[in-house]
Amino acid sequence: ARGRLLSFERHEWLRHGSCAGAHNEDDFFEQVCSLSRLPLQIMGGSGAKTNFKAMVAAMRKSGLPLYAVDYHNKQIELSVCASHNGRWKFAAPSRFSDVCRSESETNSGVG
Length: 111
Hints:
alpha+beta; single chain; 111 residues; disordered C terminus; two-stranded antiparallel sheet; two-stranded antiparallel ribbon; globular
C-alpha cells in the first residue's frame, strides 16, 4: 500500500505540480491539502458522504468554481489559478486574470 501511495504522489507531482507554479513537492501537496479542506467540508456537511450525485449537488450549490465532473471515475474537478507568489486560489477560468493577476499588474498605477 505504501508503494502505491508513493507512486500516486510521484505521478501527481510530475503530472500536475511541477508545472503548476508550486515551489517544490512539499509546497504542492501542502496547497492541495489546504485547498481540499473547504470542498471536503462542504461535501461532508451535506450528508453526502457516500452519494456522489449529492456531493456534486453540494459543490454546485457552494459557488466554488466547478470545472468538470467525471461520473465514471467519481471525480469532481475545481478550478484554481496561481497568484504571483505561487499560492493557488479558487477561480473560474474566466476570472483568472482578475483573481490571479501578476504582482506587477496589482501594483501598477497605484500612487
